[in-house]
């Protein structure tokens, strides 16, 4: 057992750190650390770390790791973290760089010790998602009950503990911003113990969780927004480090950046982002919170160019700002939204920024203007608007004296009587509002009165502080109904907030982290939804269901099962995209032919309008004791008879059927210009399945004929049609 926990390191390490402040050269610093290690190594009794426990759950390893067996002869960096914590995320690039410089063959091993703040973070599947999302490539142990945290008397996130080859504690680093010390302490520790022949070069059994996953069209989408027309979506495909612009039916118009992280301006084909989050679109311009690059980027859809408008590409610590955007360091921007300055003559002349990394809300002046309680500002200036920079839940009439805790979502209500920014303040588990008349910061729902208590979370519908949220990341204003929708991320729910009554209630989700489309909003499930938006008409809500790697579509008017669906993301490879019109490269040449025995099911006629989106929900049932042959080309496809082929222009005509246990969504959008009032569409499916004893395999098919009665007025609503069929015998 550790005799005194981290407190035992304090006297000697404090003395070392004072000495390092007086050292002038790198050589002097290295000598001081070397002498410190001599002193620590000759102690009568090591400060040792207890065994990690054989019953703990591990990620990124072949087997559980024993600290005193498997890591004997290694210098170990223990990273005590929790995945909600922005300060912990700021440390990850330093650890990545350290691991790049020294491998286990050199004697270094980094171990992430996940010690949860929120109950949701104790669940292994959620930690798996975080390990993938943040590209953590070292072993991670789920210390769900904070056993090691308590044994070592760790007091805050993040904390690094550096161990010698006997599991002996040598250094601790609390908080972020200690990169120089981390590299100095680690490199000299490796040298010190190599000189003594105590470093082993054996490999640790690393097995990255990400290597076992199939590819998906989206990877941890963080945010989504919709343009004013309601026709285009902008999706932050965060895990793929790219921005997607799609039609309402999911067809990709532009894919910008990805699949690897980077930092590059230029044409769409060469631009690069690093875990982008918030997106805002106006006309053909998109602004992006390029979170892990610490930048605000501008995408021009007409010129097909990406530029940087704020940030310098490294994490900033300045909590005031005031420089020209591209000269102003910023820190982990998480969301962006357009707004208006007090004195400006142009609409949307301010870009509000949720600056999660320093717990503030900032403004980027897109034109010259004035902010509430501020002086005139020039175009391009980027500066703090609200928040002291202290991590707290403090409301105040003076915006600079208020405190936020990792603000992660913003939404604007410009109309009276609101005229405010709404803020999803994730680490205080609250929704707050900032007046755009005078900058006053007020509480709306969640949290509690003590501004320093960031543990007042839960899942309770109610009013004001009696309502409880758990790490909300997204928020959007419904102009039509005058309510807010909140992505209550760690409760896996969408909540609705009436700001007039300060009432908060569950709109969608059961609280279970899964991916089920139920018979109502409250029977459907999400998994850490991170962002959401409502189209201008107030009809459809789009939710970035982050850990399910999907965009979910909810119809706010009908609130029925058929309107809680997944937006299929349709790859552009099938299309030549010219002037935003997708033209099918090869209409029907490669589509399979159904067997003659395939049933032809006639569907009731469907009334539709030009431009309308139809989602066909295909649900096929195999005979008992049969299984899908997943190696075979199981597919759906859409055809039309001669005279109706105009229906197919710009459509995605085929797709895979990967799993018959759940619905396959087949998207279709009627052309905006329809050539006749009546048409027939055929939706076909071709399956290969075998008896479970594999004694026989067969190909089966089914065709659904959908007559369409096309009206003359355009409408943007989404219609869904169920296609069900059971293959009864082999």
From TrEMBL:
Record has Protein biosynthesis as a keyword? no
Q: Which domain of life is it from?
A: Eukaryota
Stretch forming the signal peptide: none
Stored PROSITE patterns: NHL (PS51125), THIOREDOXIN_2 (PS51352)
Could you list this entry's UniProt keywords, alphabetically sorted: Cytoplasm, Repeat
Q: Where in the cell is it found?
A: Cytoplasm, Cytosol
Q: Which Pfam families match?
A: NHL, Thioredoxin_8
Principal place of residence? cytoplasm
Q: Name one GO cellular component term.
A: cytosol
Chain positions of NHL repeats? 513-557
Q: Can you give the residue ranges of the Thioredoxin domain?
A: 38-191
- Function summary: Required for normal embryonic development.
Per UniProt, subunit arrangement is:
Monomer.
Q: What's the protein called, per UniProt?
A: NHL repeat-containing protein 2
């Amino acid at each position: 057992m550790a005799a005194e926990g981290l407190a035992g390191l304090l006297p000697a390490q404090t003395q070392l750190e004072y000495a390092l402040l007086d050292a002038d050269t790198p050589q002097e610093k290295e000598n001081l650390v070397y002498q410190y290690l001599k002193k620590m190594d000759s102690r009568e009794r090591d400060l040792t770390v207890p065994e990690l426990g054989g019953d703990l759950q591990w990620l990124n390893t072949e087997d559980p790791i024993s600290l005193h067996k498997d890591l004997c002869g290694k210098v170990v960096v223990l990273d005590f973290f929790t995945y909600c914590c922005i300060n912990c995320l700021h440390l990850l690039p330093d650890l990545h760089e350290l691991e790049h410089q020294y491998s286990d063959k050199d004697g270094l091993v980094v171990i992430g010790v996940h010690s949860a703040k929120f109950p949701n973070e104790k669940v292994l599947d959620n930690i798996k998602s975080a390990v993938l999302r943040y590209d953590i490539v070292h072993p991670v142990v789920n210390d769900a009950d904070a056993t090691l945290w308590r044994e070592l008397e760790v007091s805050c996130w993040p904390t690094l503990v550096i161990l010698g080859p006997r599991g002996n504690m040598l250094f601790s680093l609390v908080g972020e911003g200690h990169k120089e010390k981390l590299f100095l302490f680690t490199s000299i520790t490796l040298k010190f113990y190599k000189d003594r022949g105590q470093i082993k070069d054996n490999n640790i059994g690393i097995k990255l969780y990400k290597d076992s996953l199939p590819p998906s069209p989206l990877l941890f989408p963080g945010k989504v927004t919709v343009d004013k027309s309601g026709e285009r979506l902008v999706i932050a495909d965060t895990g793929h480090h790219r921005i997607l612009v799609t039609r309402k039916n999911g067809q990709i118009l532009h894919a910008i950046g990805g699949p690897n992280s980077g930092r590059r301006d230029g044409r769409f084909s060469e631009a690069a982002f690093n875990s982008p989050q918030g997106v805002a679109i106006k006309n053909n311009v998109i602004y992006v919170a390029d979170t892990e690059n610490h930048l605000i980027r501008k995408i021009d859809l007409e010129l097909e160019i990406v530029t940087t408008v704020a940030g310098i590409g490294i994490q900033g610590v300045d909590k005031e700002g005031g420089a020209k955007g591209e000269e102003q360091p910023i820190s982990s921007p998480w969301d962006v939204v357009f707004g208006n300055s007090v004195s400006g003559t142009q609409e949307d002349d301010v870009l509000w920024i949720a600056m999660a990394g320093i717990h503030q809300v900032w403004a980027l002046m897109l034109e010259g203007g004035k902010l509430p309680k501020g002086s005139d500002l020039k175009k391009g200036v980027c500066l703090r608007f609200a928040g002291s920079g202290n991590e707290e839940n403090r409301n105040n009439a003076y915006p600079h004296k208020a405190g936020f805790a990792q603000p992660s979502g913003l939404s604007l209500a410009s109309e009276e009587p609101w005229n405010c920014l709404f803020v999803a303040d994730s680490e205080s588990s609250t929704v707050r509002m900032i007046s755009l008349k005078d900058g006053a910061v007020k509480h709306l729902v969640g949290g509690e009165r003590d501004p320093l208590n960031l543990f007042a979370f839960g899942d309770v519908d109610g009013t004001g502080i009696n309502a409880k949220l758990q790490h909300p990341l997204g928020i959007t204003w419904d102009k039509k109904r005058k309510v807010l929708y909140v992505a209550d991320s760690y409760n896996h729910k969408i909540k609705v907030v009436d700001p007039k009554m300060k009432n908060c209630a569950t709109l969608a989700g059961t609280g279970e982290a899964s991916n089920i489309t139920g018979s109502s909003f409250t029977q459907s499930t999400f998994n850490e939804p991170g962002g959401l938006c409502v189209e201008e008409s107030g009809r459809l809500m789009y939710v970035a269901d982050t850990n399910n790697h999907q965009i979910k579509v909810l119809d706010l008017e009908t609130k029925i099962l058929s309107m809680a669906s997944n937006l299929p993301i349709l790859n552009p490879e099938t299309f030549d995209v010219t002037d935003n019109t997708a033209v099918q490269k090869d209409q029907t040449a490669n589509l399979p032919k159904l067997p003659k025995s395939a049933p032809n099911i006639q569907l009731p006629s469907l009334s539709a309008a030009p431009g309308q989106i139809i989602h066909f929900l295909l649900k096929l049932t195999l005979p008992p004791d049969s299984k899908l042959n997943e190696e075979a080309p199981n597919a759906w496809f859409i055809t039309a008879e001669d005279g109706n082929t105009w229906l197919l222009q710009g459509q995605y005509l085929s797709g895979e059927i990967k799993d018959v246990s759940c619905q396959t969504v087949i998207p279709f959008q009627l052309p905006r210009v329809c050539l006749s009032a009546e048409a027939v569409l055929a939706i076909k499916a071709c399956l290969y399945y075998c008896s479970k004893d594999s004694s026989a395999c067969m190909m089966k098919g089914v065709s659904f004929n959908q007559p369409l009665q096309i009206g003359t007025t355009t409408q943007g609503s989404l219609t869904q049609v169920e296609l069900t069929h059971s293959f009864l015998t082999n």
